[in-house]
Predict the 3D structure of the following.
Amino acid sequence: MRSRYTAYATHAIAYLSHSWHPDTRPSDLTPDRDLKWIGLKILSTEAGGPDDETGWVAFVARYKIGGRAHRLRERSRFVRHEGRWVYLDGEIEERHR
């Protein structure tokens, strides 16, 4: 999760694509140049160990758009795909200004 956050913050599109499951990956990952990521807090993890095929990460990511601060709270699902962990999908729990 931290590496994907960093990829969003640094506009590392190739890494985002590589770390996203091909069945759910959007065709266009062009970053919003007006959005600036400013912080990540991991709230909890569930499964995702060496013997698991699925894991969850709950987090809050803070960002700014046009100088206004916002928060995204999500519970992300990761799965093993071709021997590595990839993002499959997530449940957005709340968005705050």
Q: What stands out?
A: Strands lie at 35-47, 54-65, 68-81, 84-96. The domain at 2-96 is CATH 3.10.450.50 (Nuclear Transport Factor 2; Chain: A,). The radius of gyration is 14 Å. The first strand starts at residue 35 and ends at 47.
